[in-house]
Amino acid sequence: xxxxxxxxxxxxxxxxxxxxxxxxxxxxxxxxxxxxxxxxxxxxxxxxxxxxxxxxxxxxxxxxxxxxxxxxxxxxxxxxxxxxxxxxxxxxxxxxxxxxxxxxxxxxxxxxxxxxxxxxxxxxxxxxxxxxxxxxxxxxxxxxxxxxxxxxxxxxxxxxxxxxxxxxxxxxxxxxxxxxxxxxxxxxxxxxxxxxxxxxxxxxxxxxxxxxxxxxxxxxxxxxxxxxxxxxxxxxxxxxxxxxxxxxxxxxxxxxxxxxxxxxxxxxxxxxxxxxxxxxxxxxxxxxxxxxxxxxxxxxxxxxxxxxxxxxxxxxxxxxxxxxxxxxxxxxxxxxxxxxxxxxxxxxxxxxxxxxxxxxxxxxxxxxxxxxxxxxxxxxxxxxxxxxxxxxxxxxxxxxxxxxxxxxxxxxxxxxxxxxxxxxxxxxxxxxxxxxxxxxxxxxxxxxxxxxxxxxxxxxxxxxxxxxxxxxxxxxxxxxxxxxxxxxxxxxxxxxxxxxxxxxxxx
Length: 507
What we know:
Number of strands: 21
CATH class of the largest domain: Alpha Beta
Low-confidence stretches: 5-17
Strand order of the largest sheet: 7-6-5-4-3-2-1-8-9
Shape: elongated
């Protein structure tokens, strides 16, 4: 299969970037739907889709009569993923009435298109949905749909792997007919965010978070704000976070805010990646200039890189990839320095980690990286881990003392560093550290940043400890990534505010 290319500038000049933004509206009745349409237009939408099958008791004349922008009327039957389960003739009659009332578009399913005659002034979107995967070849399906008297062809498939998005991009790239093509699901979010880059007729968004009518829809405020959808062109540099899962990541909010702050034509995307080697090979030629790498790919991604920073190679942990102009991929680790700087800032003035007794909880990816970093800083390291064999191996590797988890209370450290996911949302009441070992003056660092104050940090604060959340570490490692990618100073204040906003917190 040929590697997909990015769109050249001449295609941009032909108008391939005028993709519309459509908000799908589902609501509890006509009044709420009218309010949702108004909110969508106020938020910057070009048109709205009225999902009649998701608006109980709808008043069609009121909905169309009070529309604040062009509308697509959709009355989706259950067989195509909708909620309508009545008589087909009743459903088609509603669509005919919508056309007569002046709706600008109707969405008619491919298997019913011959039953819905044209009405002057209303354009037909002939649609096909696959909730299982991606039928191939998409180009053949597209030709079949276009032959069904379609003004606009719509194909919605389901991405099982992020590579499935490439089929959507190839389809859009290869047609001049107005086409909506997207991949549903978390792995398909990039097809919605990059729809304009490949010349889609429109992309769908939800009116707000939690109101998506299809899997993978992005809230309108995020689409136009965080991702700056209307500014994405063939020249826009692409970045993203490789993770599995990825939906919880704060990195898109942080890095997109940084790009905006310094005026870079760049966008940072959530990338649900299963096979990092395959992903990098196929996606980097699209215009990606860098990646963040997180769980579970920090080690496996190394096999796909052309060059690895000595620290990252020694740790066997890459959290940052920079792509050169010639496509060479270089791996780095910004986790270690990001965390150590944060921990050192919490020490009493003038003190360093050298000679300090540090109890490190956890021997996973971050724990392993910090074990090396702390020993290089001269700390006297004591390590504990739930899996004894893994903890012992790391302790031997860095020359640290190991204690079993149930015995950590006998250690009297100067600094306690917690690197596991214990206490992370949603299990916010969990803590892996006995409260009894917390004491006045102890520096307690918890790598978890969601919530900002974990149970461990609450208990440490009450005991008089110096507490440090993972927020500073997150910002510092992200700043290191930004500087590797752009060769510019990172706007750390902006990045920190974006992270706080994304977490719903106040500084």
